[in-house]
Amino acid sequence: MNRLHLSSGFVRQSLVGLKLLVVMTVVLGVVYPAAVWGISQTAFHEKANGQIVSVDGKDVGSKLIGQNFATKDDDLFHGRPSAGDYDGLASAPSNLGPSNPDLLSAIKKRQATIAAIEGVDVADIPADAVTASGSGLDPYISPEYARLQVPRVAKARGLTTGAIEKLVADHTDGRQLGFLGEPKVNVLELNLALPDR
Amino acid sequence: MSDTTSGLLTILTLVVVLAAVYVPFGDYMARTFTSTSHTRVESRLYRLVGVDPDSPQTARSYTVSVLGFSVVSIVALYAILVGQQALPFGRDLPGMPWDMGINTAVSFVTNTNWQSYAGESTLGFAAQAGGLAVQNFLSAAVGMAVAVALLRGFMRTRSDDLGNFWVDLVRTTFRILLPVAFVAAILLVSFGAIQNFADHTVNAVAGGTQVVPGGPVASQEVIKELGTNGGGFFNANSAHPFENPNPLSNLLEMFLILVIPISLTRTVGTMLGRRKQGLAVLGAMTVMIGAALAVATWAEAGGHSQAARLAGGAMEGKETQLGTWASAMFGVFTTGTSTGAVNAAHDSFTPAGGGTVLVNMMLGEVSPGGVGAGIYGILIMAILTVFIAGLMVGRTPEILGKKIGTKEMTYVALYTLSVPAIILVGVGTAIALGSTPDAMGNPGGHGFSEVVYAFTSAANNNGSAFGGITVTSHFFQIALALAMLLGRFVPIVLVLALAGSLARQGKVPTTAGTLPTHTPLFTGLLVGVILLITGLTFFPALALGPLAEALA
């Protein structure tokens, strides 16, 4: 008898729950995101849509989503290694553990490659240049890594290093509000600011 | 400015903002749960669904409501996930396979948000916003309701009344979670998080095309943090620039993760009429989270790992603009609160950093724990503490005017044992299977840590991962779903049974022999008991995983 009472209570309570869930789904799952969408699209249109950057009317990327900047002439600033090869629909870190031999050899290989193409000592290469980001879409590099790439980009474009150095400095953001996070350079914006050859 | 100064100022800012809202927000939540009047909208809602909001529930009835609502939620969410192709904004994606659907439905209803799928390549916008985000609100509200019911157990005398679950659920959602989430979502968009309904293909600078993903991200992101859920819209979670565009949004998200669990200690103090009790609990939480923060920051910012020494910094799996400090901070808060959102890959943390976030979960999610769940978790530990202290001096233990008898202690002991048992049985079974080493993403002790992390995260309803492990086999999908289900509802049933038994008691007067539970001495005892329980339970597993790796 007691068990019967409990189970009928359970069914009745579950029905109440189902009705409430339907209402909640309408309010929290439809009205709420739609309201946030409406206000965002009106007040922060560009940000709500991912800060798409266009050149000559053509969309070339999002300010917040990194890209693979490897080209034949190697005349662009490179972003960080990406575990998802900058696939916009496959954000991911490498998830390699801190003593995993695969990670250690990947870091060594990246160091050797960068040392060769940039003509620098391995000791001068900053950590962000040889490690994959958390998102696989990191739009930023450290100012150190940007400066390290200046001679190569200048040479590939037939420009003085001074001119490129100034561009890097102009595109370096300090800590947010003066104290939050790390200084950074947006690689897409820096590359788009490079003068044509 | 050095990284250290920047990091310390970030922590200071967070502490100041949390301190500023602590009293008003904590008291507001207390009023929410003690007020006897319903808003007009609420009254209409109760009538619509057939609830008498002024009829109190017994422990048994409250439990039946919690379980009934959760079962319905799991079934409904499962239907949405496996049948998402029938919904609008589906991005032409098929429904989830059955085992992933079960795992995900259980995961979001239990406030775990363990993810065996990658959001951007698996789910349409309707399933995310109308399925997952809805449970981000409701599963958090369920946790709050259970915590409040336990508080009523302490407040009532010779009564069967634990309040009304439906009222607690509705009020938490409409009076606390939704207003805060709405304001925070707009703020987050103003920082750069996206809120749209379309992917966008661009012609990349170096040639080829790139899909810039879209989605109602900001609205889901804020409740993911505020409700200590943690399930990312994107696979990379809060490391993704569209979820967490910059260090300022990172600060906002850390605030959202902490604000309810921290402020609830004030709510406890206010509701019980013992403000100092709330502070004593907050003190214990602060000691534990502070210690975890110190160790993790030392390990990450100091780069104490093989990979970090080689690369010149522990930046594998971390975003440039966040760096090691903000990543360690977020990692500690997200595991201390049972949130499980990540802004960096925990799998790639240094051994001591990764070990710290693992231990943070093993503490039982009480530093400060998830929304609601943290409070009932630490109150259980407080009961255990007075029991042990009572044994030492040979007195019947009592806390907050209630005697802790055999019945109460049975519930507490079962609670304390249930989650560790789920974890250890789960890990043991997984390791005994021949297929598990292939699922590990890393060799050696670190691979073992991935399995321990997975079951710890699931059973504690945290949801973060050492993400290298492949958990899409039938075994892991179902075993982890079971761990989440049992890890959520066994403790809840025990807490409500305890609440009912406390409510039925009379009040014992405070005498000279009563151990005061609002003093620094008690805070110290409480931390000691939590560490003791965790250490005794998990030391062997930790020794085989992170400790072995750190010493290697």
UniProtKB/TrEMBL annotation, chain A:
Membrane topology: Single-pass membrane protein
Keywords: ATP-binding, Cell membrane, Ion transport, Membrane, Nucleotide-binding, Potassium, Potassium transport, Transmembrane, Transmembrane helix, Transport
One Pfam match: KdpC
Segments passing through the bilayer: 20-39
Gene Ontology MF: a single term: P-type potassium transmembrane transporter activity
Subcellular location: Cell membrane
Keyword Acyltransferase: no
GO cellular component terms, A-Z: plasma membrane
Family: Belongs to the KdpC family.
Quaternary structure and partners: The system is composed of three essential subunits: KdpA, KdpB and KdpC.
Function: Part of the high-affinity ATP-driven potassium transport (or Kdp) system, which catalyzes the hydrolysis of ATP coupled with the electrogenic transport of potassium into the cytoplasm. This subunit acts as a catalytic chaperone that increases the ATP-binding affinity of the ATP-hydrolyzing subunit KdpB by the formation of a transient KdpB/KdpC/ATP ternary complex.
PANTHER family: POTASSIUM-TRANSPORTING ATPASE C CHAIN, POTASSIUM-TRANSPORTING ATPASE KDPC SUBUNIT
Name the record gives this protein: Potassium-transporting ATPase KdpC subunit
TrEMBL record, chain B:
Keyword flag Ion transport: yes
The entry's keywords: Cell membrane, Ion transport, Membrane, Potassium, Potassium transport, Transmembrane, Transmembrane helix, Transport
Single GO MF annotation: potassium ion binding
Subunit architecture: The system is composed of three essential subunits: KdpA, KdpB and KdpC.
GO cellular component terms given for this protein: plasma membrane
Cell membrane listed as a keyword: yes
Organism name: Aeromicrobium endophyticum
Topology within the bilayer: Multi-pass membrane protein
Subcellular location(s) of the protein: Cell membrane
Protein name, UniProt field: Potassium-transporting ATPase potassium-binding subunit
Pfam families, per the entry: KdpA
Its job: Part of the high-affinity ATP-driven potassium transport (or Kdp) system, which catalyzes the hydrolysis of ATP coupled with the electrogenic transport of potassium into the cytoplasm. This subunit binds the extracellular potassium ions and delivers the ions to the membrane domain of KdpB through an intramembrane tunnel.
Family designation: Belongs to the KdpA family.
Transmembrane segments: 6-25, 66-87, 137-155, 176-194, 251-272, 279-299, 371-391, 412-433, 475-500, 521-543
InterPro entries noted in UniProt: KdpA
Subcellular location, principal: membrane
